[in-house]
Amino acid sequence: MLGRLLGYVLFALLAWITGNFIIKQSHYKEFIFAVSYIFLSFTLIIYTFSKSHRVCNIKYFSKFFNNSNKEKNFATILLLGFLTGINVCPPFILAFSDAAFFSNVISSILYFAAFFIGTAIYFMPLPFIGVLKGKQIKLVGQMCSLVIGVFYMYSGIIMLFKEMILK
């Protein structure tokens, strides 16, 4: 979990740098954010209903580690958590886009800290997963993903209309 948090904090810093030193220098920053919200929320909605979630699957990192190594030292565990934390998938990219919109670095870090807490909730029931039904957990995740996708789609459309009306 500490590795994931470190990955999130690093991406929060990257998002803030991207937003403040690259995008905000542009005269079209609101347009860029609006279009990115619409595109990424559309991607998230499609992702919600897709059969394959390989993009967010951490299993592809396992080939980098020797399965015969039974010793799990702190550095290896931290690295695996970090790789999980920088796992690029539609919700994470949407969070990156949102954090890039903040004008100060603390807001971006706090946003990703909240993202960390929100996603950490899904790790807590892992020891008890055998008791729970996988289809029920997947349905709840899909519903949350759909609601977030619709929210960001709405936000992007409103932002785009405001940008078009003001110009």
**Estimated share of beta-strand residues:** under 5%
* Poorly predicted parts: none
Major β-sheet annotation: none
Count of the domains: 1
Secondary-structure content class: mainly alpha
Give me the count of strands.
0
**N- and C-termini, Cα separation:** 45 Å
The total count of helices amounts to 6
Chain-averaged pLDDT: 75
Oligomer: single chain
Q: What letter string, H or E per element, gives the SSE order? A: HHHHHH
Rg, rounded, reads 18 Å
Overall, the morphology is: flat
Helix content: 55-70%
Q: What is this structure, in a nutshell?
A:
This protein is an all-alpha fold and 167 residues long.
Written account of the structure:
The mean pLDDT is 75. The chain is flat and about 55 Å long. It is an all-alpha fold and 167 residues long. The chain has helices at residues 2-23, 29-49, 74-85, 90-100, 105-120, 134-166. The chain has six helices and no strands. The chain crosses the membrane at residues 6-23, 30-50, 74-96, 108-128, 140-161. Residues 2-150 form the Urease accessory protein UreH-like transmembrane domain. InterPro entries: UreH-like_TM_dom. Pfam families: DsbD_2 (PF13386).
Key terms for this structure?
Urease accessory protein UreH-like transmembrane domain-containing protein, 167 residues, mainly alpha, 69% helix
SSE diagram, text form:
Layout: H1 2-23, H2 29-49, H3 74-85, H4 90-100, H5 105-120, H6 134-166
Helix pairs in contact: 1-3, 1-4, 1-5, 2-4, 2-6, 4-5
Domain Urease accessory protein UreH-like transmembrane: 2-150
InterPro entries: UreH-like_TM_dom
Keywords: Membrane, Transmembrane, Transmembrane helix
